[in-house]
Amino acid sequence: xxxxxxxxxxxxxxxxxxxxxxxxxxxxxxxxLFSDAAAVSWIAPAEDxxxxxxxxxxxxxxxxxSCIIPAGGFRKPKSGETSLASVDASGNTRTAENLHMDGMAxxxxxxxxxxxxxxxxxxxxxxxxxxxxxxxxxxxxxxxxDCLTKLLGIPPERVFSNLRDVGNTVSASIPIAFxxxxxxxxxxxxxxxxxxxxxxxxxxGSALLEV
Length: 211
Prior knowledge:
Distance between the termini: 19 Å
Largest sheet: 5 strands, mixed
Radius of gyration: 18 Å
Order of helices and strands: HEHEEEEEEHEHEHHEE
Number of helices: 6
Structural class: alpha+beta
Strand content: 25-35%
Number of strands: 11
Strand order of the largest sheet: 3-11-10-8-9
Helix content: 25-40%
Shape: globular
């Protein structure tokens, strides 16, 4: 929007999360997934017709409790009570000041919303899944990536993943994956790329790029 309006010609988009500060060391549901990372993306007007083709974003606020830190903010400040740990039925330990995540609920939400949005974005740009050379999804988990690949019916070789190397780097995951795909040779000039992110909110968004 800043580029199109002429309000800016160069912008740095900074994504950084340090989830290690909010995950309990005995919470296997979150501890094994998330890693700390930061990414900086340089955004500028394209000199040709290539670049960002279209973006579509959505949010479903009623599902906010699926991924939340219940205490520590203005609504529920930290206290002696919020620092008390409890153990859930799966043996995971956390306090109200730690990240609480219902992984299966989020996975079900993602599977029902993200493929529809991707198809909608492509349809309104007169494109199909076959027209996309590379898909880069938020690196949530292997299960999430495998489900999206299967639900969309796309070949695994057209889906880039660096999850094994860096884990779930939250908001920095797509910029880092984009950089790694380019450096590894998977992402090449002239290709059409589709990005799709999803997570806390719950929110989800997709972007169609020509690089």
